């Protein structure tokens, strides 16, 4: 995936840090599904979709929602008219988002490469740069975080330890001794029933 950004600059959201060396890019993007979000803070459809994408991203990467962050990276490719508009939009989005610097001609290259003609658009890529979904906006709206599982399988990522918080809660509610306790409960019930039968037989005799 780093090959896509070789010689390019990515900005860390709300920071002045640049992620630009091949080693840094490799570490940031290695073994991860990459989302390229083409959007604008001024576009009405983007204003509707962006909060949904923000929630989608947080539910997959924020420790409040997941035991462990999923293998997901998002790069914002803006169509904002000014740098101030881009900065204002990014301030309202997750800190883990990356962005193409405002005015970088590489944005246009990406639009042409992935045939993006309108926004919002979310291009989903494998770690090797192959396209998984040409535009996942509708899929994200329809399925929410569940669609990441499909992308993860399509990308053949090494690490498959992905749990949504609600899945994790379900797991923690059932302790490892649960099957034993259930079995003991059944046996106790059977013993109680037998004792009751014997008692009734004794009273009759």
TrEMBL record:
GO terms for biological process: photoreceptor cell maintenance. SUPFAM superfamilies: Thioredoxin-like. Residues 1-142 form the Thioredoxin domain. It comes from the Eukaryota. One of its GO terms (cellular component) is mitochondrion. InterPro entries: RdCVF, Thioredoxin-like_fold, Thioredoxin-like_sf, Thioredoxin_domain. This is NXNL1 protein.
